[in-house]
Fold this protein.
Amino acid sequence: MKFLFDFFPLAAFLVAFYYPENREQGIYLATYTIIVATFIQVFAYWLLYKKFEKMHLITFVVVIIIGGLTIYFHDERFIKWKPTIVNWCFALALIGSHFVGDKTLLQRMINLVENKLILPDQVWRNINLSWGIFFIFTGFVNLYIAFNFSTEFWVNFKVWGMTGLNLIFLIGMGFYMYPYLKESEADATSQE
């Protein structure tokens, strides 16, 4: 269910972009749509779970500001910055968490959901730092695509390319974590 919440605004953006025949107008309709879809995402999540998810709120604030500038100035360059700004905010939070507290941000977030995924501290730090660097990288890739290719190409990259990059990176992280997960299972079994 959470998967649908996370991708609803992106899917709405894609559909709205391709709705008008004039692609120039499509980006502005898609911008209006992503603002509304992100609001619905945040509100529906709150109705279901009686709490807000930080990722949704950060994205909503960025979408309101960047989307508002795009519509007000009738300039698509603003909305093209949105994925980069969101990714760089996440990167800053992830990398910054190395200097605050005894656990990284990713470790705290995953352990809230997964009921204590046990990994060595250095593995958590490596995973957290890797995600931070990955978000910085994808921010730069977005800017390169946004300002060197057509808007239609950028929209397709934003939806399919960024999703694919995230999936590939997630699979890579799974392979990195797998040996440590087996060790932690063995340790838990031996303690029983």
The two ends are 34 Å apart (CA to CA). The helical segments are 2-18, 23-49, 54-73, 77-96, 105-114, 121-148, 151-191. The chain has two domains: 1-75, 81-192.
